[in-house]
Amino acid sequence: RNLDLNDLREKLSIIPQDPFLFEGTLRENLDNTGTRTDDELWNALRETRLEFKFRNNPMGLDARIEEKGKNLSTGERQLVCLARAILTKRSI
After folding, report:
1. Which of 29, 7, 16, 13 is nearest to 85 (CA)?
2. What angle, rounded to 10 degrees, do the helices at 38-47 and 74-88 form?
3. Which of 23, 48, 52, 66 is deepest in the core (most CB within 10 A)?
4. First and final CA of the chain: distance in angstroms?
């Protein structure tokens, strides 16, 4: 009750059951601020077992993600959200 909402958002990552992805690239969906290195992005994908799916894609981290991630399965969308949470280095 005494915790400031901004402090809470900075310390906690939530992975929604209904995953939300943006239309754009995988890179943009993982790191919308553009502050993470390619190695950090690949490491997060490796931890979620998505690395090979995107390494096999000629576009790699620049693979297109359709609106709401329609070109990925529900499980893959959830794993992208998990990778995004891992990159924040917050409690999940």
Report:
1. 13
2. 130
3. 48
4. 20
